[in-house]
Design brief:
The protein is mainly alpha-helical and 92 residues long. It is built from 6 helices and 2 strands. It has one domain. Strands 1-2 form a two-stranded parallel sheet.
């Protein structure tokens, strides 16, 4: 609803939604927003490309080279995520 308000405020206003996770990772809420035609929604590799369009920086390559989510977090955090079957959140 908020996005539709922004669209009505300015003729050329674009609501952009960027989600790191790939669409096929059971991200139903993302698909709902994308299909609403109120959002220009990007996810996965497309998300990183759009960020690069805005910033002229390859953030995906930087993340892949510098971040290892599972090994950068505390082992207790990773253990808690594993016990709760939440490791997929590291991909989001």
């Amino acid at each position: 609803m908020v996005a539709t308000i922004y669209c009505n405020l300015e003729d050329e206003y674009n609501n952009i939604l960027l989600v790191r996770a790939k669409e096929d990772l059971n991200n139903n809420y993302f698909r709902t927003l994308k299909n609403s035609h109120v959002w220009n929604a990007y996810c996965g590799d497309e998300d990183y490309e759009k960020i690069g369009d805005f910033t002229h920086f390859d953030i995906q390559n930087w993340i892949n080279s510098n971040i290892d989510w599972q090994n950068d977090l505390l082992t207790t955090t990773v253990s808690d995520l594993q016990k709760s079957n939440l490791m997929g959140y590291l991909q989001w």
